[in-house]
Amino acid sequence: MVQLSFSLEEIRLLRSLIETCLDDLWIEIQATDNMGYKEMLRQRKALLMKLLEALPQNQDLPLAG
Predict the structure, then answer these.
(1) Rounded to an integer, what distance in angstroms lies between the CA atom of residue 53 and that of residue 22?
(2) Fewest CB atoms within 10 A around its CB: which of 10, 19, 30, 55?
(3) So what's the pLDDT on residue 63?
(4) pTM value?
(5) For residue 62, is pLDDT > 80?
(6) Separation between Cα atoms, residue 35 and residue 38, nearest integer Å
(7) Separation between Cα atoms, residue 35 and residue 43, nearest integer Å
(8) Hey, what's the torsion of the CAs at 20, 62, 5, 49, to 10 degrees?
(9) Would you give the distance in Å from CA 50 to the centre of its chain?
(10) Local structure of residue 58 (DSSP, 8 states)
(11) Is the pLDDT of residue 65 over 60?
(12) pLDDT tens, 25-61?
């Protein structure tokens, strides 16, 4: 298992980027008629959701001091 260390700012940026990608994927999934492509997008969405869940939530991050 790989373990990475990120600063609070890096975690916030990663969460924001992943959330933006998920929004974009949702739109793309709805717009495509190609079932193979749609399935690939769904798999990518599942992986991004797994990554997002692995990152600490904003409320779990210590307050800046």
Answers:
(1) 13
(2) 30
(3) 56
(4) 0.80
(5) no
(6) 5
(7) 12
(8) -30
(9) 7
(10) G
(11) no
(12) 999 999 999 999 999 999 999 999 999 999 988 665 5
* Helical pair 8-31 and 35-54, crossing angle rounded to 10 deg: 160
**What would the two tokens of residue 11 be?**
């975690």
- At 32, the amino acid letter reads T
Q: Which residue has the tokens 């798999």?
A: 43
Q: What share of the chain is helix, strand, coil (3-state, %, to 5)?
A: 70, 0, 30
> Token digits for 44?
């990518």
CA–CA distances in Å: residue 37 to residues 17, 29, 34, 51: 22, 8, 5, 21
Residue bearing tokens 């940026």:
13
Nearest to 32 by CA among 48, 50, 44: 44
Residue given tokens 């609070």 in the structure block = 8
